[in-house]
Specification:
single chain, alpha+beta, 39% helix, elongated
Length: 112
């Protein structure tokens, strides 16, 4: 299951650092942990002043806000990715089993 990371960035230095941190975290997650990361960068034509007023850059991992207004650390992105994976795997321990057949033996299974 890939982890989705979204970056809202302006045309400023902090936004460039945030995008670089996300890309570096994606490389680490793929190389060291075999975790696929889908990175989506949405750039807005704002400079330093406007970006600061809007709280850019913003980095989201899944539906979790990791950073706003400052570039996140690589470790914060990796931690958020693992939390997102844990949340996605909650309750899915073991192998999936086919549904039990009802009395008529539907679903191709014998009823007991």
């Amino acid at each position: 299951m890939p982890v989705k990371v979204r970056v809202y960035a302006g045309f400023d230095y902090k936004s460039r650092l945030a995008v670089d941190a996300v890309r570096e975290a994606a490389v680490i997650l793929a190389a060291e942990y075999a975790v696929k990361v889908d990175v989506e960068v949405l750039e807005f034509p704002f400079g330093d002043d406007e970006s600061g007023e809007l709280g850019l850059p913003e980095v989201w991992v899944g539906d979790r806000l990791v950073a706003r207004g400052e570039p996140p650390s690589i470790a914060a992105i990796v931690d958020a990715a693992f939390k997102e994976l844990e949340r996605g795997l909650a309750g899915s321990v073991g192998i999936p089993l086919p549904p039990l057949a009802n009395e008529e033996g539907e679903n191709g299974l014998l009823s007991v």
